Description:
Layout: H1 3-20, E1 32-33, E2 38-41, E3 46-49, E4 55-56, H2 61-74, H3 76-87, H4 90-93, E5 94-99, H5 101-105, E6 112-118, H6 127-140, E7 144-153, E8 156-168, E9 174-186, E10 189-198, H7 201-213, E11 215-216
Antiparallel strand pairs: 1-4, 2-3, 3-11, 4-5, 5-6, 6-10, 7-8, 8-9, 9-10
Helix pairs in contact: 1-3, 2-3
Amino acid sequence: xxxxxxxxxxxxxxxxxxxxxxxxxxxxxxxxxxxxxxxxxxxxxxxxxxxxxxxxxxxxxxxxxxxxxxxxxxxxxxxxxxxxxxxxxxxxxxxxxxxxxxxxxxxxxxxxxxxxxxxxxxxxxxxxxxxxxxxxxxxxxxxxxxxxxxxxxxxxxxxxxxxxxxxxxxxxxxxxxxxxxxxxxxxxxxxxxxxxxxxxxxxxxxxxxxxxxxxxx
Length: 217
């Protein structure tokens, strides 16, 4: 699997897994509440906006290991994926992670966004190539691709994909999750922005708002 595909698929798993775990697993004591909806992510060369109630949380290898142990009991597939996260440097490549900690504390799926910079890995050269790539790795997650399209950010080409995923809950039920990813060029590298929310009418629009706010610095 190419470096771009590896980091992009794990970005999905990371977003779903972190949305599914309890707030206590996220080292919330180290988190800082954003006072504005807009943040500059200099390491990714972009700015974007996210809901006021979300909190920026640092991702560490220790936090990922703790979450993996919990997921081993409730969702082994995601637990295995988080182990892969730690060994491929995703934690270091993640330049922003913001999540709805209030929802997480209540036991609900926590909507969230992350930005991963895939160094020395240009994004696909066409929307068809992008669509083929995401179709392949969403299939690995048993997620259903809804669409892949070409967009424009500050006059530069970007790609977006939307998919749905049935997340297994610890009580044996499931919750439908909406996965949305945007890929933009960042020099010789790529930025992968992943927004994961509950798959319902009000929450699905969050991805539109986040992606619509993306600007180059």
